[in-house]
Every structure is written in C-alpha cells, then in structure tokens.
C-alpha cells in the first residue's frame, strides 16, 4: 500500500469512529432530556409515559391538602389548566398566583408530580414560564 491509500484508510476509520461516538452521545443524552410544557402545550402533545415539566402559575384557591403530605393544585397559563397531584413537602415559597414548575408524568390524564420547583424571590419567574405567559 502506498501512503495515499493508508492515509485515506486512516481518515475513513477516523470518520466512522467519530460518527459512532457522536451517535452514542446523542442517544444517551436523548434519554435524559426533560421537556418543558405550559398547560396549553399539554393539550396538543402525546403526554403519556414521558417525564415532563409543566410550568405556569398556581391558580388561586386551588391548593387542597388531601391527606398527610398529599397535595392537589392547578397550574394555569391563563388560557388552559392542568391539575397536579404531589406527595411530599412543598417548597417554602410555593403559594397561589406564583410561578411553579412541576416535574413528573401523566397517569390516566392526571399529572403526578415527583418534584416541585418554586420561585426563589419576588423578581424571579422561570424563563419558560414567563415566555409562555407572555405569549398568551
């Protein structure tokens, strides 16, 4: 083999190796992505069996304590609403008419949250929530 053919073989092998490595990285990251949706977006998607983040404002007079550390509340974007069930301790800053993001899954068209994220000061609202509310 002359130098040109060896160099070409090396470059092809390098290209194939890099392509496979990039494909494996993208595939691994794809499984860990959690998408954010507003209540209006939820209406339009296939929402079953995916880990999702639903964000908006906690609707006034919607927080209900069902049992010991089981809460039910409604997240709204002032257009549509999503009912959320959560078992656990709510963040200290969680309250009505405040920005919140709930992370979890839909089970039989009910959103079961595994994590609740609330704003951390009076000037903060998650970027996705702010943009979603601004666009409505």
UniProtKB/TrEMBL annotation:
Chief location category: membrane
Subcellular location: Cell membrane; Membrane
Cytoplasmic side: 1-7
UniProt-listed Pfam families: CcmE
Topology feature Extracellular, residues: 29-136
Membrane topology type: Single-pass type II membrane protein
Example of a GO MF term: metal ion binding
Keywords: Cell membrane, Cytochrome c-type biogenesis, Heme, Iron, Membrane, Metal-binding, Signal-anchor, Transmembrane, Transmembrane helix
SUPFAM superfamilies referenced in this protein's UniProt entry, alphabetically: Heme chaperone CcmE
GO biological process: cytochrome complex assembly; protein-heme linkage
Binding site for heme: 120, 124
Gene Ontology CC terms: plasma membrane
Family per record: Belongs to the CcmE/CycJ family.
Function recorded in the entry: Heme chaperone required for the biogenesis of c-type cytochromes. Transiently binds heme delivered by CcmC and transfers the heme to apo-cytochromes in a process facilitated by CcmF and CcmH.
Identification of the protein by name: Cytochrome c-type biogenesis protein CcmE
Gene name in the database record: ccmE
